[in-house]
UniProtKB/TrEMBL annotation:
Keywords, alphabetical: ANK repeat, Repeat
Lineage: Eukaryota, Fungi, Dikarya, Basidiomycota, Agaricomycotina
Organism: Cylindrobasidium torrendii FP15055 ss-10
Pfam families (alphabetical): Ank_2
Classification via PANTHER family: ANKYRIN REPEAT, PH AND SEC7 DOMAIN CONTAINING PROTEIN SECG-RELATED
Region: Disordered, residue numbers: 539-584, 600-623
UniProt-recorded name of the protein: Uncharacterized protein
SUPFAM superfamilies for the chain: Ankyrin repeat
Positions of ANK repeats: 8-40, 132-164
Record-linked InterPro entries: Ankyrin_rpt (IPR002110), Ankyrin_rpt-contain_sf (IPR036770)
Amino acid sequence: MNSVRNSPENFPLHRAALVGDYDAFKRVVEEGADVNELDQAGRTAIMCAVAGQRWDDISAAHESAFTSARLNIIRALVSRPDVTLYTLNAPQEAFRGVTPIGMAAWLNLYDAVNALLEGSLQSVSVDGMDTHGATSLMYAARDQNIRVVQLLLQNGARPDFRDRNYRTSIQFALPHPPVLHLCEEILRQHRWRETKATVRGSTAASAFDYPADFDFGGEISVPSIPIASVSKATKALIRAVVSSDVATLHSLLSPLFLSSHTQDFQCLVNAPDLKGWSPIHYCASGRTPCVQALKQLYYAGADVSLFTAKEHFTPLHCLARSGYLFLDEERISLLSDFLIGLVRDYRAPLAARDKEDETCIHIAAEHGQCLNVLVLLLELDTTGQVRELRNARGLTALEVAKPEFRLAFGQDERPSSSCSIYTLRPATSYSSMVSFFDLPDAPQGLEASAPSFDSTGMGQRLVTNLRLTSPAIHHDQNTSYFSHLEGVLGEAEEISLELIAHFRARTEDTSKELLELSATARGITNLFETVSRDADAVTEERGIESINPWRSKRGSEDSQKTMVSTGSATPPSPTSPGFAVKSEEKATSKWKSWFKRKPSADRLNIPASPSPSPTVGQTPAPSPIPPVSCFWSSPSIDNALRTSQVVLTKARRDLLRIDERIAAGQGLILKANQAISRTERIIQKAIRKRKVLVSDLRQTYSNRRLGSRASPGPGSPNSLGYSQFVSSKLFSRNSMTSLFSNSSANSNSTVLESDDDETRVVRRLVLRKIDAHISAAQEEIDLVIQWLRIVKEVVRGVRRRAYLY
């Protein structure tokens, strides 16, 4: 579906989207263009419409260049029922690996971001990650695009998601206090709601509580934030943290939970001091680990993967570098509880690296003062992967460890303390936190493990050797030449064994990858079914009407417009041409009428913002939903529940298509295995035939020298069908060398006239067919890995936004 095609009929769609020609776009859609296809450059039409022609020109005014025609094209494309989650969310290498919504946020295109989220009914993942692990919120926060930040946060974007380098939107917002305030406020609400979600079944409790009348759906005001006030508040927080004054810390943070409408600045929990350290860093490096202080900072919005400005230390690096000793049982127990809270409960990243590419385990092993800190960090590294990471010097933690600390890396040396981490259980685990590395990684196949094997070169040598020993050519009549032929055949046998083993190893590895992907797909299907059941139950319980804009209101007359039938077992066929262009407004009118009622990001009051103040939006209509507890009274949760049926139906359809892609890959591997077996049989037959040839040549030559009468007469054909009496010129070593050179030069693209049937078949199978099947299967795997990652994120996004834990 999404492989790069060279079909010219698809390119007009992309050209129209790229230049913003809406009339041409409508015409191409009516002619049946596939909105899921990539053009020759590997671009989707949706991304072309978002990016435009000058997306990579830093001097271009992207906001003013974004035309209404491009906006209409985006709306038409994302609202089509046949558009896949892959097309809506996949990173695209032609655009530096960015997703469509990431590109819109990067270019500060507020209307494009809104169209992607609203027009797709949340099928565009607000937290979708690109190839760098970055989300759209990270781009908007980094560039202080406040209106886009507001819009993303109102649609459920998470400020604590991490990219490949474990940076979050909080990290990117540090230079921009208004953006940081918005991210922290939303993060506080997210974390508080997670503890209140009854489906989770957790006993965890927040360190703070919102008042019963707190308006989660109201405006999030950003007060004027003087730099002096930020510095003063940060110093107060740090003093309370360093002194482990939990009561004072609580009094400083509690006002953050009173109201989101206050115009009085309180504090920014993640703001750094002049040293570049935030309160969470001082909390982790304190003399006495304080679990209560850590808990208060976490629920107030602290980022546990936040990096310091100079050293690029995370809180775990700060703890590992601290010079305090933890020797007695009580202090070891406090340290263990603190680390469990930081790593297991709040998911601080062990694998994060500082500016020298060193993990916290590197730091604890080389610069730490306490062996118990290193032991506990190693026990938290349950897979053993972090300790094997190498720093900028190319060394592992064991290789940089102090001699007296190396025993911590042994298999048998375990702490005898009763406070070992294995005797303690975490209170809870926040599995909704996502890092780029939580998602499926591409399996490593044979090509990655043995890149030195040149199957093409080996195949060419095999074909050359078969040509040199072919019964269809003339051969010299001397013993040295016969010995040479035997050597060539011996080499051909060795090459064939290596090639067959190589191809079989590749198919075996690819088959394993496909089986693993099948298991992953089943796991995501189970997740999908669980989220679907929970969403249906909560939606029904709350009396919320789900949105399905493609459901026919006129019975079977419009059945072709239905997105997917409830009992369908196969993906629906593409809709009729022009569906999105002709019926877009009608199809989504119900959704848009409700969407306008929810608090818009335009209503957020930000007097300190450098951007112009947005126009006050339409006054929200009274909610038709019955009164519920303050926990559920949030338009963002209502939004997630209303659109859940649309999003999950697309996910279900994509999972069916993914199954088809996996089956296609398995079919390709089956064909490859059949071709390998056929190749093996033909090579064995060809070599046996050539061995008989050499044996007969030797026998004939020997008989001739002894004057045997058994030799065939002049011109008589022998049992192998070639003439023994030919010009000595044809049998010269120069002739053989010439043939070798000619064969090598032409084996890739030319079939020689002297090739026998076996050589031709082997050449085709070894140099083209087998590799083509395996490579095609690998392409399917690459596609499926990305597609599964997207579907998983979309389904998890429904669960996160509706708090279906």
